[in-house]
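@channel sequence for tomorrow's demo:
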Amino acid sequence: MRSDDAEIRAAHVAVIRRTLEAISRLDVEAALACVHPDLAFELPYEKAVPTLDRAGFTELLGGLRSNFGSFDMALVEVVEALDPTVLVVRYDGDCLSLDGSVRYRNRYVAFLDFTDGLIRRWREYDNPVLSRRMNEQLGAVNT
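structure tokens (generated this afternoon):
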């Protein structure tokens, strides 16, 4: 491994840490500062959700902020790829709705591709049963 590859990887790890910390604070602007203007955010297990561009990702984050009082995302593991612009990360979520009635916990694996030091492609895998249950519970609360 070349030293410049190690520096690139370290910078990308710092970006995903900042991103998850911003999401945990429900700070949409800070999270957006970590993603590329040409972002593609994919949820392959969520069939109803198309690939989101930066505007769609912004809307998704706004939805989190309007529905959750806390949305803690803890980085658990980083797996470096041979290509220094690619990371595989595992993180855990522990979230609570604004009114405190819906707790949502899930585990995630994401494949991240970076361009110009920002997340350009984010493919996130979670347990879709848990996310569907959370959406149904939130729907019942918000009716």
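heads up for whoever presents: Residues 3-141 form a domain with the Nuclear Transport Factor 2; Chain: A, fold (CATH 3.10.450.50).
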